[in-house]
Write a structure and sequence with these properties.
383 residues; alpha/beta; Aminopeptidase; Alpha-Beta Plaits; 2 domains; 8-stranded mixed β-sheet; 4-stranded antiparallel β-sheet; 11 helices; 16 strands; elongated; Peptidase M20; metal-binding
């Protein structure tokens, strides 16, 4: 598939323009307009405003009613970029620190190639999704009828992966990314003078005990054969050295792959909070939000993805285990069979990890990403 090489220079320029003009979830107005314009120039049917700022391009060839969906996320992160690159973000507090600018460029490259070659029989839906970073843009698109308006027998997405060597492609059947839950526990005492702790329940002491107890849940209430993570990430309370605060907030995240494990962890968390509250004389209110489900690949779709990857890449791997990071492509996989893939972009440890202020997408993998999307479409819609 050497004929994608002529696309890489303009795709690199497009990607770096998006990088310089990042937009946060559900505010990707410039990004969506640029994508819609590029798809229109290719002669595709273009639909906008799906799930907020989502864009879908439709390309048909032949007479088959088979359909495949290819998805790229397009939002940035609320991080201040520190790369110092010539195309560094021009928007303070917004940054393509996860490579979604590269995902968009690769999918546009595939659209350009498939539009000019049309070596397939059926329909390809190019899905450009808003608000992947914690806001559930995939859910919004699905709820607004994505797969009713643009039916797919399979849907695929990829993500650049700094932990894999550049150009390597990996996926696996079953779970590939974790469900993501977040919790906040409000610990209420009465507050009072720090020199008179006997006169008020100590919310800070109760919160400290709570943190220790929470960190036993996975070790002592979940089977050793299951996989889960519970991390406390914030403790907020108090404003003066001589005052016992009336309130402390404890916040954290839970990651898991199995709904039964997820249920057990939430139940245990609530029980622990109730027990510590009784023991400390405080009042605890638990808010628990299961905001992303686990990303579960259909086994047949994962096998198809690995076969397609084998036509464009020498290093194709079945990932030995899933990652504990999360991905809202999970909502699309709940509605349509498909698979999620990792495309290596590592360079021997020199590249920064995802969500780091020094991260940048590796343009050297653009061609591999384009070829992978093209191979998926051509193999599943073989004429």
């Amino acid at each position: 598939m050497a004929d994608v090489d002529d696309l890489i220079e303009p795709l690199t320029a497009f990607r770096r323009d998006l990088h310089a003009h990042p937009e946060l979830g559900f505010a990707e107005h410039r990004t969506a307009a640029r994508i819609a314009g590029a798809l229109t120039d290719l002669g595709l049917e273009v639909y906008t405003g799906i799930g907020g700022t989502g864009v879908v391009g439709v390309l048909k060839a032949g007479a088959s009613d088979r359909c495949v969906g290819l998805r790229a996320d397009m939002d940035a992160l609320p991080i201040h970029e520190q790369t110092g690159l010539p195309y560094q973000s021009r928007h303070t507090g917004a940054f393509h620190g996860c490579g979604h600018d590269g995902h968009v460029a690769m999918l546009l490259g595939a659209a350009r190639h498939l539009a000019r070659t049309r070596r397939f029989d059926g329909t390809v839906h190019f899905i450009f999704q808003p608000a992947e970073e914690g806001l559930g843009g995939a859910r919004a698109m699905v709820q607004e009828g994505l797969f009713e308006r643009f039916p797919c027998q399979r849907v695929f997405a990829l993500h650049n992966w700094p932990d894999l060597p550049a150009g390597t492609i990996a996926t696996r059947p079953g779970p590939i990314m974790a469900a993501a839950d977040k919790f906040e526990i409000r610990v209420e005492g009465r507050g009072g003078h720090a020199a008179l702790p006997h006169q008020t329940p100590d919310a800070i002491l109760a919160a400290s005990d709570l943190v220790g107890q929470l960190n036993t849940i996975v070790a002592r209430r979940i089977s050793p054969t299951a996989s889960a993570v519970l991390s406390v990430t914030q403790i907020n309370g108090g404003h003066a050295h001589n005052v016992l605060p009336a309130e402390v907030r404890v916040t954290g995240t839970v990651r898991s792959f199995d709904a039964a494990v997820q249920d057990r962890i939430e139940e245990s968390l609530r029980q622990v909070a109730e027990g510590v509250a009784i023991a400390s004389g405080t009042r605890m209110t638990v808010t628990y939000d299961r905001y992303y489900p686990a990303t579960i690949n259909d086994p047949e779709a994962a096998a198809e993805a690995l076969a397609a990857a084998g036509t464009v890449c020498a290093d194709v791997r079945t990932a030995p285990e899933p990652a504990f990071t999360s991905e809202d492509f999970a909502f699309m996989l709940q509605a349509c069979k498909g698979a999620y893939l990792w495309l290596g972009q590592g360079d021997g440890g020199a590249s920064a990890p995802l969500h780091h202020p020094h991260y940048d997408f590796n343009d050297a993998i653009l061609a591999t990403g384009v070829r992978l999307h093209v191979s998926l479409a051509e193999r599943l819609l073989a004429a």
